[in-house]
Amino acid sequence: MAKDDDEKAGFGTRLKQIGMAFSFTAKKDKLFLPLAIIAALIPLAAGAVLVFVTHTLPWPFMAMAVLLALLAVLIVLNVRTSKAVMDQAVDQPGAAYGIVEQMRGWNITPAVAVSTHQDLVHRAVGKPGVVLLAEGSSGRLKALVNQEKKKLNRVVGSTPVYDFVIGEDGGEQLSVRKLRNRLAKLPHNITAKQANDLNRRLTALKAASKPPMPKGPVPQNMKPPKGARRAMRGK
Description:
The chain is an alpha+beta fold. It has 2 domains: 2-89, no CATH class; 95-208, no CATH class. 59% of the residues lie in helices and 12% in strands. It contains 8 helices and 4 strands; from the N terminus they run H-H-H-H-E-E-E-H-E-H-H-H. The protein has helices at 2-28, 32-54, 58-89, 95-101, 138-156, 179-184, 192-208, 228-234; strands at residues 107-114, 120-126, 129-135, 161-166. It has a 4-stranded mixed beta sheet, with helices on both faces. A hairpin with a 5-residue loop joins strand 1 and strand 2 (120-126).
């Protein structure tokens, strides 16, 4: 019974997610609904034609046509939702981090380097190696990226280190819309296990480089109120 309840809950969650994606895409993409309708009508029309031509019972053909229509709508939904998300991410701070975080096979750490002007460099580790994704002013980012590369070269050895400046101004900048495809086209230089091990080393190195907490008693105004620690542990 518990397994059946979990399956029902999972199916309900998926339907809810599809509904949310449908609503979001319809609001953001004017072409979505016309394309979805066309995608649904093509298999339905093909099924009707087959029934008319073959003079057989309509149920097998129409059942297949309905399933194909649903599949076609879901394919259109997936493609247009991805496009809508990418369009919304343009010029948004942290957009590159958000996109790579959703990609399989990548471990991304946000803001491994930050300038006083709030320029950011994110670090992603995957089978291609290490990728630095810089967001901000191209003129200021070069020095920030080079500084981070020098730190990485002491740890990564022969593992390749790539860097991209994310932006929509053209030239050497990589549009956030093309980021997913660009990363997918990078060659695989290390295994998944090596990538995970490397990411753990880099994360540990970053943690070790943080200044230690000062020793001595905690000032009274910095101590949490009574019961706060217990409440935090309960979370």
